[in-house]
C-alpha cells in the first residue's frame, strides 16, 4: 500500500456523510506506518471506543474508506475466535464482528454487513509475521506468504464489495 495523506483518507469514505468523515479521528502517526507492509490502513477511534475505520486501495486503484462499529465487549468470554481475513486466533475480545453501514441508500436505510476481524486491525502484520500473537495463534499454513496475502486481499475486497453494493442485494 502506498502512503496516504489525511486528505486522501477523508475523501475515501463511502459509508458516512462528508461531515462525519471530517469529524473522524485520523491517526497522527501516518509517517511512521509500515506502508509497504499494509494491505489496508485500519485504526480505532480513541474518542469513540465502539468505532474504527478502514481504508484500502481497490484493484482498480480507487481508494475506499469505511467506518465500522464494534460490538460491546463480552465479559467472561474465554473461547478463542478466528479472524476471517488473516486466520489469526485471539482469546476473548481479540476478534470482533465489525459491522459497516452499506454505502448509499441501503446504508441510510440501516442496512449493514459484518466481518469477523482482529480487533486491533493488524491483519496485514499478522500475516507477514511482523506482529506476533500468542503462541499458536497463527494456523500452520501450507500456503506461501504471497498466497496468504492474496487470500487476505480477496476476502477484504469481497467485504468491501458488500459495503459498496448499491442494491444491498448480496
Would you mind describing this structure in some detail?
- The protein is an alpha+beta fold.
- It has one domain (6-164).
- The chain has five helices and seven strands, in the order ααββββββαβαα.
- The protein has helices at 6-11, 18-23, 104-108, 123-127, 145-164, and strands at 41-44, 51-57, 63-69, 80-82, 89-91, 95-101, 112-118.
- A three-stranded antiparallel sheet has the order 1-2-3. A two-stranded antiparallel sheet has the order 4-5. Strands 6-7 form a two-stranded antiparallel ribbon.
- Strand 2 and strand 3 (63-69) form a beta hairpin.
- It is globular and about 45 Å long.
- The mean pLDDT is 90.
Oligomeric state, counting identical vs distinct chains: single chain
Shape: globular
Structural class: alpha+beta
What is the helical fraction, as a range of percent?
Answer: 10-25%
Q: Report mean pLDDT, rounded to a whole number.
A: 90
Number of strands: 7
Give structural attributes.
25% helix; 170 residues; 7 strands; alpha+beta; three-stranded antiparallel β-sheet; two-stranded antiparallel sheet
Give a concise summary.
The protein is an alpha+beta fold. The protein contains 5 helices and 7 strands, in the order ααββββββαβαα. The strands form 3 sheets. The protein has a 3-stranded antiparallel sheet.
Which SSEs are present, and which pair or pack?
Elements: H1 6-11, H2 18-23, E1 41-44, E2 51-57, E3 63-69, E4 80-82, E5 89-91, E6 95-101, H3 104-108, E7 112-118, H4 123-127, H5 145-164
Antiparallel strand pairs: 1-2, 2-3, 4-5, 6-7
Amino acid at each position: 500500500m502506498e502512503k496516504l495523506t489525511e486528505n486522501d483518507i477523508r475523501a475515501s469514505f463511502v459509508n458516512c456523510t462528508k461531515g462525519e468523515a471530517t469529524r473522524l479521528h485520523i491517526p497522527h502517526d501516518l509517517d511512521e506506518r509500515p506502508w509497504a507492509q499494509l494491505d489496508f490502513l485500519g485504526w480505532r477511534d480513541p474518542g469513540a471506543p465502539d468505532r474504527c475505520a478502514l481504508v484500502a486501495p481497490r484493484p482498480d486503484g480507487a481508494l475506499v474508506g469505511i467506518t465500522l462499529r464494534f460490538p460491546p465487549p463480552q465479559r467472561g468470554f474465554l473461547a478463542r475466535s478466528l479472524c476471517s481475513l488473516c486466520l489469526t486466533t485471539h482469546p476473548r475480545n481479540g476478534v470482533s464482528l465489525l459491522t459497516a453501514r452499506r454505502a448509499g441508500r441501503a446504508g441510510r436505510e440501516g442496512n449493514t454487513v459484518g466481518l469477523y476481524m482482529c480487533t486491533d486491525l493488524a491483519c496485514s502484520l499478522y500475516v507477514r509475521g511482523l506482529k506476533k500473537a500468542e503462541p499458536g495463534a497463527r494456523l500452520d499454513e501450507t500456503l506461501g506468504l504471497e498466497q496468504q496475502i492474496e487470500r487476505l486481499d480477496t476476502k477484504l475486497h469481497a467485504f468491501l464489495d458488500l459495503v459498496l453494493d448499491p442494491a444491498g442485494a448480496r
